[in-house]
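Key result, reporting period 2: structure in, sequence out.
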């Protein structure tokens, strides 16, 4: 039998197209805590919108929220830090929502990633 540390960990890889400045937050307690949730996510960057998604299926006594960040990098950081974060007794489930992006959002995202990669390559070759 393999030891605990011998098993490879489950790793989720996101491509540029999977990531988004739009996040879906599930398992939020149904306590009318949208302002508190927005404040929590705002600590990772400017949140343009935070609203409940009434049409989404969710567990009893929980809500689903849609959050729109101004910058992709802030959404990426918030997702990394707040996925599985315990908020008012519930473990949040944060996922990207690229289906809400407009064509210009996608273009900006891909152009930003291109600039990031070029900056890393230029730094690598200067050393």
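The corresponding designed sequence is given below.
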């Amino acid at each position: 039998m393999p030891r605990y540390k011998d098993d490879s960990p489950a790793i989720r890889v996101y491509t540029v197209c999977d990531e988004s400045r739009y996040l879906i937050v599930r398992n939020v307690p149904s306590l009318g805590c949208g302002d508190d949730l927005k404040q929590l996510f705002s600590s990772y960057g400017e949140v343009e919108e935070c609203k409940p998604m009434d049409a989404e299926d969710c567990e009893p006594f929980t809500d689903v929220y849609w959050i729109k960040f101004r910058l992709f990098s802030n959404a990426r950081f918030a997702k990394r830090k707040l996925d599985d974060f315990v908020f008012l007794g519930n473990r949040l489930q944060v996922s990207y929502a690229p289906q809400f992006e407009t064509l210009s959002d996608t273009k900006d995202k891909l152009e930003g990633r291109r600039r990031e990669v070029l900056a890393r390559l230029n730094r690598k070759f200067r050393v």
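The domain at 19-100 is CATH 3.30.70.330 (Alpha-Beta Plaits). The radius of gyration is 17 Å. This case is discussed further under Risks and Mitigation.
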